[in-house]
Amino acid sequence: MKKTAALLLAGTFAISMVNTAAAEVKIPAAYIALGDSLAAGQTPDSQIDAGYADLIAQELGRNQPVALFSKDLAFPGFTTADVLERVEEEETKELLASANIITLSAGANDLLRLVQANPADGSLQFQRIQSDFALNKARKNIADILNRLNEAAPNADVYVMGYYFAYPHARESQKEGIAEQLEILNRILENEAEKADAIFVSVDDAFGENATSKVPNPGDVHPNLEGYQAMANEFLAEYRSGWTIESRELPQPNPVSFEEILQVQEEQADENPQPAAEGEEPAEGEAEQTADDQSAQLFPSLQSDYLAIRTILPIV
């Protein structure tokens, strides 16, 4: 590993810690997936379908009672700062309080948004100083997120999902630098998980640096169902030894486009307009503007039974 990477790691990992967190089977399971588009189940074609969270919930349901499964707190494009802001909201705390299993995917967008990838020639470019700064900020945010989760969901086991190498189609000569940065990110996630008594789920070995069968689109970093299966199985290896998702058990594809999700949101906003304050009449034109604002609003109601998104980004 290069000297700059070693220097960044020195302050973060000066003390080696033993992970004392132990996985426990939760009956009935109340599972909430929190984080970015991997938690949401974004496909290599920029749609939403079954992701690792859905596969985990499916396997839980095959083996034990499941009282709740939600990925209403999973949003494509979310950075650690976005996740931290989300978990500090009161309605989020109410939902988290019911959970006894939480998976967290956060950190990749802090880093990968700095990477300039050219699928045409297989090149990868990034500025190491910017990357080091982003990783340090992600470390602080992850620590805060885990502290908030421990407060909001005291009965939950928190599983921090690691990341895979997202550019298997890049030229071999281009992979080393960003692979080092992703390794640092995974080390940060593991270290912060240990300090918070959470459980780190490593997925990079299940992918490697050449997992083109799991990340098939050279212009997109998201995995297909085979990739999500690998991630879910790494979680299950931590949760309950012997539980695994076989390929024959994978659901049939049923992708939903972002446009379809937004249409559902707009319809829900039209059906559930926000009432004016008691004794207050909307100003002229204000009612129309309120409807427009609701249609444009991309944050979901926590009671929704579909995945809503905050923003559309071609990143994790």
From TrEMBL:
Stretches with biased composition (Acidic residues): 278-291
Record bears the keyword Signal: yes
Record-linked PANTHER family: SGNH HYDROLASE-TYPE ESTERASE DOMAIN-CONTAINING PROTEIN, THIOESTERASE 1/PROTEASE 1/LYSOPHOSPHOLIPASE L1
Residue numbers spanned by region Disordered: 266-300
Name this protein carries in UniProt: SGNH/GDSL hydrolase family protein
Keyword match Signal: yes
GO terms for MF: hydrolase activity
Residue stretches making up the SGNH hydrolase-type esterase domain: 33-230
InterPro entries: Ester_Hydrolysis_Enzymes, SGNH_hydro, SGNH_hydro_sf
Leader sequence segment: 1-23
Keywords: Hydrolase, Signal
Lineage: Bacteria, Bacillati, Bacillota, Bacilli, Bacillales
